[in-house]
């Protein structure tokens, strides 16, 4: 094969691989695609059935209550109130969602990832230590202390967290680049999976005593 043709074939294959590996929400093909549970006379788009656009109403694009603090009486002393396609059906195919995060003093939104979204967060009240870790093999820890009005971005798929380092409550609002970003909390996924991961796997992976692994699994 000639060099020029070989180069063009390589470029085409890379482009195809990139398109197949895309994790972002597809672009909408109509003004609205309000998600409904009833499939009768509906079209299936993005994992949801779409309401007839002629039948859409204001309530399909509305959510109330984000001004109210979430319940932070839990082990991590924080609460995430999500506003995604499950709460606002009109978000279907629009590729965006948001969340309110409430923190008690020294509460945290523990290390987690969003497999389908980049997150941009702004602090409304309090002081947060935030950060994310880049992928293997570099595993760089990039962090910042945020105060009221500060904004920080967490790239799609990377492990990140928020920790209230102040002595007062903190509140943040996050926007995410997917109608359904998904969330994987690292500790819960690794030590609280159902069924449990074989302790021998985790013992070697984390270089821990097997009793410590068993204890951690009992906690989740």
* Gyration radius, rounded: 21 Å
**Which runs of at least 5 residues are low in confidence (pLDDT < 50)?**
7-22
Beta-strand portion reads 25-35%
How are the strands of the biggest sheet laid out side by side? Answer: 4-5-12-7-10
How do the helices and strands follow one another from N- to C-terminus? HEEEEEEEEEEEEEHHH
Q: Estimate the mean pLDDT confidence.
A: 88
Give the proportion of residues in helices: 10-25%
Q: Strands, helices and their partners?
A:
Layout: H1 3-20, E1 35-36, E2 43-45, E3 48-50, E4 78-83, E5 97-103, E6 108-113, E7 119-125, E8 128-133, E9 141-146, E10 151-154, E11 159-164, E12 170-176, E13 184-185, H2 186-191, H3 199-206, H4 210-219
Antiparallel strand pairs: 1-3, 2-3, 4-5, 5-12, 6-11, 6-13, 7-10, 7-12, 8-9, 8-11
Model description:
19% of the residues lie in helices and 30% in strands. It is of the alpha+beta class and 220 residues long. The chain has a five-stranded antiparallel sheet with strand order 4-5-12-7-10, with no helix packed on it. The chain is globular. The termini are far apart.
List keywords for this structure.
five-stranded antiparallel sheet; alpha+beta; 4 helices; 13 strands; 220 residues
